[in-house]
Amino acid sequence: MFGVSMRTLISPSLAPFSLHLPKPSLFSTALRFSSLTTSTISINNRSPTNSPPSAISTRKLQTKATAITSSSSSHPLSSSPGEIHVVVGPMFSGKTTTLLRRILAEKETGKKIAVIKSNKDTRYCTESIVTHDGEKFPCWSLPDLSSFKERFGFDEYENRLDVIGIDEAQFFGDLYEFCREAADKEGKTVIVAGLDGDFKRRRFGSVLDLIPIADTVTKLTSRCEVCGKRALFTELIGGAEVYMPVCRSHYVCGQSVLETARAVLDSSSNKHDVVASLL
Ligand SMILES: Nc1ncnc2c1ncn2[C@@H]1O[C@H](COP(=O)(O)OP(=O)(O)O)[C@@H](O)[C@H]1O
Ligand SMILES: Cc1cn([C@H]2C[C@H](O)[C@@H](COP(=O)(O)O)O2)c(=O)[nH]c1=O
Ligand SMILES: [Zn+2]
């Protein structure tokens, strides 16, 4: 649905956007994932999926030793602590693609993996995560994360699962608790992909709450549908579900266009009301 919507973005209703560039959709057509930009804050200087350097092994050993002598936790560490990697950005910035790459890299090293996405996202397919380029990977489509262990099987989860990928993380109300427990107490590596902000640039769900407990945070960017520059934000451009990635200038410009359009619509519907009331 989105693939189609984005290809028809510059519709008559978007005339104000197209004023800035004669053929803005060329940017999305030409865009490949490799051209999207990334900035990663690696809190402990290791890459998300690479095997840890020796300093990390030392840290894990120390933490393990601490866990053995600690009796305060109701969930004593049975293995090394896990990791949390967070991938955020606007729509079409490559979050699902990145998640998929990282998950496949983990799988290739022999790790047992599982991918979960919110069942609120039914755009392409419910049983798979699907990138906007059509790449797919089977997943658990769930209403919340707390139901995952039971569905996956407690024993299988505890003893065999190494890596959990979470897509559309902004829709999970229990994201923070799930990730903290999985990484801190259950030794899982959790790779989380989701929107940091909504179309009003407000924080979305609890994705941002993960930052203080994350190993790495990667903010991806897309390409502005209007000018082709780096897109940081997602703009809602039509109905309830048509979005496009935009740069800061065009986000601001789009907001003022929308405000003006709303004001015009309001005043004209008021005029109609007045006229109607006179008839
Ligand atoms: N308007 C667009 N702007 C940028 N990328 C787009 C657009 N439309 C489709 N794409 C494609 O979407 C891909 C990213 O898809 P995906 O990983 O699913 O992103 P996200 O999960 O961040 O929404 C890009 O590599 C690009 O090929
Ligand atoms: C900006 C924005 C998005 N959504 C929805 C629309 C999609 O279902 C997902 C984002 O998917 P993607 O993998 O990042 O392309 O979120 C929303 O509900 N509200 C918003 O403001
Ligand atoms: Zn722009």
TrEMBL record:
It comes from Arabidopsis thaliana x Arabidopsis arenosa. Belongs to the thymidine kinase family. It catalyses: thymidine + ATP = dTMP + ADP + H(+). It comes from the Eukaryota. One of its GO terms (biological process) is DNA biosynthetic process. Its EC number is 2.7.1.21. The keyword Nucleotide-binding applies. Keywords: ATP-binding, DNA synthesis, Hydrolase, Kinase, Metal-binding, Nucleotide-binding, Transferase, Zinc. The keyword Hydrolase applies. It holds the Pfam family TK. This is Thymidine kinase. Coiled coil: none annotated. The lineage of its organism: Eukaryota, Viridiplantae, Streptophyta, Embryophyta, Tracheophyta. GO terms for molecular function: ATP binding; hydrolase activity; metal ion binding; thymidine kinase activity.
